[in-house]
């Protein structure tokens, strides 16, 4: 069954109404561009991926049965288009994540014991600063780990879907996700730990 | 279990994938090691922050839907007659 808020727009697109396609692009284009930018550092590539995503969506429209919301369906298509675009780009040598992982002493204790973090502020300006810290540090993760973290924790695909989209095994997804989270935790710690009283 | 093993098993614990016996050992270590308990809290917070600040397919639309992109998509659609 189609979600009620999508029904009218779908009907108009299926009848070929030009304005309906434009409405779809204007309603969802910005959000999909934000998704594509998470994977593709080049703005041109991100825009190309969004264009590819919409063209794929228009093509698949007759088969779309409305099991998911239109926004969810488009989101998935955009992630696939961004990953496809990435595959066409020359791969940089794999970076190692090891330097970002926590270190341990010989007896198994953490080299730098964890500190408590401050609560996320309610103030909008401060929240914006934290958001920027989180986003910029996710961007520092090596690609092969960052993509897994984005797909699993941010886009919320499950392990199997992520494995399929990245053409790796589910076990590799789990290992990379854990290491990506550990590295991101290390990167965030200096910004978020409570100052000593 | 030491702190290194605790960190290794963290995700399995949070996703409820550890066998019962390992879960008990994990919890026992956490009771005895407040630093690891803090580590677990901040690991969990890392995941939460990523989700809340980077994702939201139904969240507010970013302001910048470049006009040139909208136009390019509509022109390509007409050309391909999708």
Summarize the structure.
The complex is a heterodimer of chains A (197) and B (82). Chain A has 197 residues and is mainly α.
List the keywords.
heterodimer, A: 197 residues, mainly alpha, Rna Polymerase Sigma Factor, Chain: A, Arc Repressor Mutant, subunit A, B: 82 residues, 4 helices
Question: How is the secondary structure organized here?
Answer:
The complex is a heterodimer of chains A (197) and B (82).
Chain A: H1 4-14, H2 18-39, H3 43-60, H4 70-88, H5 124-139, H6 143-154, H7 159-166, H8 170-192
Chain B: H1 3-14, H2 20-32, H3 34-54, H4 67-80
How would you describe what is shown here?
The complex is a heterodimer of chains A (197) and B (82). Chain A contains eight helices and no strands. Chain B has 82 residues and is mostly helical. Chain B has one domain. Classes of the chains: A mainly alpha (197), B mainly alpha (82). The interface between A and B is large, with 57 and 42 residues.
Q: How big a fraction of the residues of chain B is strand?
A: under 5%
Distance between the termini of chain A: 56 Å
CATH architecture of the largest domain in chain A: Orthogonal Bundle
CATH superfamily descriptor of the largest domain in chain A = Winged helix-like DNA-binding domain superfamily/Winged helix DNA-binding domain
Q: What is the structural class of chain B?
A: mainly alpha
What is the percent of helical residues of chain A? Answer: 55-70%
Shape of chain B: elongated
